[in-house]
Design a protein that fits this description.
The chain has 258 residues and is of the alpha/beta class. Helix content is 32%, strand content 25%. The longest helix is centred in the C-terminal third of the chain and has 16 residues, at 218-233. It starts with 15 loop residues before the first helix and ends in a 7-residue tail after the last strand.
Length: 258
């Protein structure tokens, strides 16, 4: 199915080397993270995922002049695991240093704010107060913000659980001090916990980008970089966010010139 473009993009026709690098089988195999409820907001009658991420992948395939296959993954960690195996060609996931060892990323096309939820009666009032000795933080294992916590938390203990639901359950069942998460999801979670609060500000903003496995022709990643910048400047990303009525996503700024 071809993508119904929201706007007209201005990229030139890609070269043969670009198409061969990004779609060596003749079809763009796009890895889609189903656990990101902001970027994947539903599914079509044939079971394919729908949302900002699938639509952006379809727009990329259209620009390359090839068909598309959406590969469904439960978590971004599983996508990263498959990067060296030649299973997929592009992936729409958060750009993180741990993932960048095997994936070449573009600049971000959108951002998602991450912060903490604290339980009723908590003395914690700011994000800066969370990283202290004795504090235990629930987080979704191998999520982009979870990887950020692994790198940056120096005093508190991060308790990693499987998926967003798993981190919420760990937070409640283990009576932890803070729940890390994407702000839009925490807005839903806080409604389930009387007296709980979402802290103002953020500890990071997840940088959603497009990646391709390392080791392929550099022409591929160069084209992806240009595609993402054009998608932001042309209004394509903003249009997709509006089309799917997603709250909590913002278009990332333009990449700095290299």
């Amino acid at each position: 199915m071809r993508n119904e473009s929201v706007v007209t993009m201005s990229l030139p026709t890609p070269s043969r080397s670009v198409v061969d690098a990004l779609a060596p089988t003749g079809t763009l195999r796009a890895a889609i993270n189903l656990s990101n409820f902001l970027l994947v907001t539903g599914k079509s009658g044939d079971g394919n995922p729908e949302g900002v991420s699938p639509d952006l992948a379809r727009a990329l395939a259209d620009g390359l002049g090839v068909g598309i296959e959406l590969l469904r993954y439960k978590t971004p960690g599983e996508i990263a695991d498959d990067a060296p195996r030649g299973v997929w060609d592009v992936a729409n996931i958060g750009a993180e240093p741990a993932r960048a060892e095997s994936i070449a990323f573009t600049a971000a096309y959108c951002e998602i704010e991450s912060t903490y939820l604290v339980p009723a009666g908590s003395p914690i009032t700011s994000v800066d107060e969370v990283d202290r000795p004795g504090i235990r933080i629930a987080s979704a294992a191998r999520s982009a913000y979870g990887l950020w916590l692994d790198r940056n938390i120096g005093h508190a203990k991060v308790v990693q659980a499987e998926g967003l639901d798993g981190s919420f359950e760990a937070f409640v069942d283990m009576k932890l001090d803070a729940l890390a998460g994407l702000r839009p999801r925490l807005i839903t979670d806080v409604e389930r916990l009387p007296g709980a609060r979402i802290l103002p500000g953020r500890f990071t903003a997840v940088q959603q980008a497009i990646g391709t496995p390392r080791g392929r022709d550099e022409a591929g990643i160069e084209y992806l970089q240009a595609f993402v910048e054009d998608a932001k400047a042309s209004g394509l990303v903003a249009g997709l966010i509006g089309r799917h009525n997603v709250q909590g996503l913002s278009v990332a700024g333009s990449a700095s010139p290299s």
